Amino acid sequence: MSQVSGFFKYAKERYHVKLRRDSGQPAPWTKDPVIAGFRFCHIFREDDRTTAWLRENIREPLRDDPVKVAKAVIGFRIFNRITTGELLKPILLRHGWSTKLARKKLTGVAPLVTGAYMVRSPYGMNKLTGLLQYMDGLIDVRRLQQPTLQAAHAELLQSPGWGAFTSYEIICDLMYTSVLENAIDKMTWASPGPGAARGLEWIYGREFSRTSQAGIEEQVVLMRKILKSSQAKTNWPVEWPAWDMRTVEHTLCEYDKYRRGQLGRRLKRRYP
Description:
mainly alpha, 12 helices, 2 domains, 0% strand
């Protein structure tokens, strides 16, 4: 079995778990001990619980107001926690963002953020003060209305405190809104994080530079090849939702976790 086939074997079984669970079948939903024993994100990011909450409560209601939806999505994702989002929701829907109102609403609230990914506060600042400072330093979000996801990602990186990973998460939210819904590179570009690079290493059997531009571009080229492979019915059933580059990047990260789990290496989150 080729390593690409192994990648899609994992992806198909993880998606089968979703289908079996959604249909009301009782657990366990898989005989794969690694998938059964540890938490893995959904194959499609839109199915993940936090993204679904953001979509239904913030993103869709504001999708046609490019300035407000951009501010609101960023304001939610900097915390990336549903309970915090519930507190911020009236502010986000009405204003897009207000540091003054957010500080008043969130002072004394704990926990504020999720462990899925975290934005570091400036040294010496508490979490809330630091994150609000980043929001105050945000670029003019009108600059995110670009012809490509890659260009919008580069713009967001100009904001102090925003790294490639969190910026990419935000760009992937905004491509479902009027900000970036017409981006022409949804099927050709992604921002590979460290987990995706490790996933590629499992498939291709060699290391990739995670910092050089040449190394990142090489990863993107290989991700395009994987995307093309997703069109083969032996890899992914045609009746299931189609992949895009975000799905490739997202699943490579989860595949790295899966392969480490197969080797008995420690994974952070067990299921349930």
